[in-house]
Model the fold of this input.
Amino acid sequence: MKVNKVCCIGAGYVGGPTMAVIALKCPDIEVTVVDVSKERIDAWNGPFDQLPVYEPGLKEVVEESRGRNLFFSTDIDLAIDRSQMVFMAVNTPTKKDGEGAGMAADLKYVEACAKNIARVSKTNKIVIEKSTLPVRTAEKIKEILLKYGRKDVNFEILSNPEFLAEGTAIKDLFKSDRVLIGGETSESGQKAVKALLDIYARWIPLEKILTTNVWSSELAKLASNAMLAQRISSINSLSALCEETGADIDELSEAIGMDHRIGPEFLKTSVGFGGSCFQKDLLNLVYLCQFYGLDQVANYWHQVIKINDYQKNRFVQKIIDGFGGNIKNKTITILGWAFKANTNDTRESPAINVTNNLLEAGAKIIIYDPLVKKDRIRMDLKHLWKSLSLPEQEIKKRNSLVTIVKDHKSALNHSKAIAILTEWEEFKHFKWDAISKVSKVFDGRKIIKKNDLNTDSIYSIGV
Ligand code: NAD
Ligand code: UGA
Done:
């Protein structure tokens, strides 16, 4: 099957970068990325240095293809109608209400996409699950397509989960460890697999493209994220033991990671993992295990999240202890709001919870992040306060105790204590000795060297 037009529903952190790379690598394929959010589409069509997703290298990729064979649009129906392949890269957050609330993935956006595809399609389509989904979601999508679609239109559903990490998305897409394509074993299913494989094969070596059945592919994505998160929780749990025993967590990670059976990646201790996916995908996995009656398995994976919460709370407690048990009216500067360096994404960032817990204990907070905008930070906090059902008056009070500054000098000159929450490169190169006021440092990313500072009061996680 010759594919020359594809579209992607969802112009977010996955849809935007993945489609930009497909457009770059396949100039003969017209790629249209659509979204219900006009604001997001406008931003994708706007100035190259203000794209809605910040990723190193993304600007250059979009610059080369936009207007040539890469388009961003809100006309979802037209894009579906014209395409032979439709990717679904919409969000799949944790359910807020109904059955499985707080655990299961909310499939309402995926289901809405499936209905849209069914309603609009007049010709055969290959429908591709790019979003991270519970195992056997393809079954549900097929039901919807059959129920609402035309009888003379054939839909093939493939699972093609995305493994990119934010901050390195373009690098990851150019040189993927693997591309996974799950399809049905039927002749038409295999033809669809081949059509998608032919696209990736333009730049990914064939030995890195793995084809499996649909359910393995869906589950492999959840399991990969669970395994990555599990490594972080494992090392973070050991960071607490290091602090008690005099061992150093970095030395421990290095020693463990040199075993080629373990490997060095994802063994960097932190204040806890953040990001939009690890927690939601783990919860989703736990829910699935419970659903199938596998309570022991569910408990095992749930522990990964519990250790992550423990690590965030432990960090807050270390700060309080650093002030002799009372931080009322003390000013603490939070350095870093993004959930990791090199992204403007703040979803589930540990900084949000840490800040709130410090405010709750009476502290005043100054926040500085080199990339995250002021409004985003305020919105993150308000969102958390609303979800905790705090009264309006309390929200107002906490909000008034937060100051957001635009540069690190203002951040550091107005406070004697700093807490490092994101491992931004610039934090590693501060001229600390010029900033004499800082007397207490709480390093949640273990990026500060003792000799860099005049003070002895440095708490480094895992030491
Ligand atoms: P996102 O929130 O950044 O983007 C999703 C977009 O889908 C939004 O812009 C939203 O407006 C749009 N949308 C929702 N419903 C729609 C509909 N019915 N029609 C048109 N547009 C619609 O989400 P994301 O971070 O790109 O994640 C998307 C999926 O990819 C999730 O399932 C996530 O788990 C998975 N994933 C994310 C990453 C990552 O690094 N962010 C990596 C791998 C996989
Ligand atoms: C993660 C996975 O790495 C991707 O493969 C996956 O596609 C993606 O989730 C997803 O499904 O959304 P991402 O969340 O973007 O990617 O970023 P990571 O690099 O995995 O970092 C996640 C969190 O773990 C960050 O807060 C980071 O600071 C933390 N982390 C990471 C550590 O604390 N220690 C480490 O050693 C690595």
